[in-house]
Amino acid sequence: MAVPCVRVPREDGEAVRSTLAEADLVTETREIVVEDGWLYIPVTDATAVPDDYEVVHRDVPTRETQTTPADIVDFTPSYERIGDVVVVDEDDPERAQALAAAVMESAIPARAVINRASKVKGDLRVRDWEVLAVAEDGTDRAPTETVHREYGCEYALDLAAVYFSPRLATERHRVAEQVRAGERTLDMFAGVGPFVVPFAKRGATAVGVDLNDTAIEYLRENARRNGVADRVTAIHGDVRTVTDPDGIDGDGTDYRDWADRLVMNLPHSAEEFLDTAVELASEECVLHYYDIQHEDDPYGPGERAIRAAAEPEYAVTVDTRHTVRSYAPHELNVVLDVRLSRT
């Protein structure tokens, strides 16, 4: 059966394989094939592969030595891995337990299997979890605690206390690749730092703000873990007060007119924070604005909201209109890369 593969020259193969593996995109059940000077690396999701890689479909051998959950259960399983925690989304208790047992029996390096028990809720963007299986590892870590790796960075986190989505790894990498050394960047809803840390690794001064104090503590830990603590400032509080150095638990800096690059990854309500984004923007600022809209007009509402907040103080140029993923039937998660230039 033909499967999606990234095709690269053989001499570039290991570097590309490593990059894809860090994003958790390499298929564990298929062999990598070498043919006529090309390497074919099977991937789990062709749509998540960065645009600068070539994706083709071809037959590649099954890796016989690996046992997957699909080999064990009598249904098509769906799951995702965040570090050594496997996340499932099963309403049927029997199927959930069967899948958890299959994951733990398979070749997947899993310490725990957890099931989504609620939607993301509240200002802190957390959800409830049902622990289905856990392997003792000699530590006192909670089943929801893990270390996730993507694109050369690693993030400690607790899924019960913070929001984190591995599905956005490719999008985060797309944005990070635009960052240049010396930029002043600010993530308005930073979480555990999956934008902040790679920005800092590329030489930017990076500030992350979040209402969730646990996420901010993890952001500080992740800055240290990735060797960028000297370029990262983590601020606990509402980003709408970050322009007042006396009104937020920060470093005393007034961030008005400061940011060369802003990230607004709060797609259900980012519009409410656009006035703050305009206050934070420097003379020339790139804004990454995430939104969820109906497929009939996925970009228009966001663009109109940005123009209403920024004009006439700034000239607004939309550099990129990009669909990140399908969010729900007829709804898309999109991003606008917007350049604000003070007039």
Describe the structure in your own words:
- The chain has 8 helices and 17 strands.
- It is an alpha/beta fold and 343 residues long.
- The strands form 4 sheets. Strands 13-12-11-14-15-17-16 form a 7-stranded mixed beta sheet. It has a 4-stranded antiparallel beta sheet with strand order 2-3-1-4.
- The longest helix is centred in the N-terminal third of the chain and has 13 residues, at 93-105.
- It is globular and about 60 Å long.
- The N and C termini lie far apart (57 Å).
Cα radius of gyration in angstroms? 21 Å
User: pLDDT under 50 segments (min length 5)?
Assistant: none
Mean pLDDT: 92
Helical region count?
A: 8
How large is the share of residues in beta strands?
25-35%
Q: Summarize the main sheet.
A: 7 strands, mixed
Helix-strand string: EHEEEHEEHEEEEHEHEHEEHEHEE
Based on helices, strands and strand pairing, what is the structural class? alpha/beta
Overall geometry: globular
Number of strands: 17
Placed side by side, the strands forming the largest sheet appear as: 13-12-11-14-15-17-16
Query: Roughly what percent helix?
Result: 10-25%
Distance between the termini: 57 Å
Please name the defining characteristics of this protein:
alpha/beta, globular, 343 residues
Write the layout of secondary structure elements.
Blueprint: E1 2-9, H1 13-22, E2 33-35, E3 38-42, E4 54-59, H2 69-72, E5 79-82, E6 85-88, H3 93-105, E7 112-116, E8 129-134, E9 145-150, E10 153-158, H4 169-176, E11 184-187, H5 196-201, E12 205-210, H6 213-225, E13 232-236, E14 259-264, H7 274-280, E15 281-294, H8 300-310, E16 314-328, E17 331-342
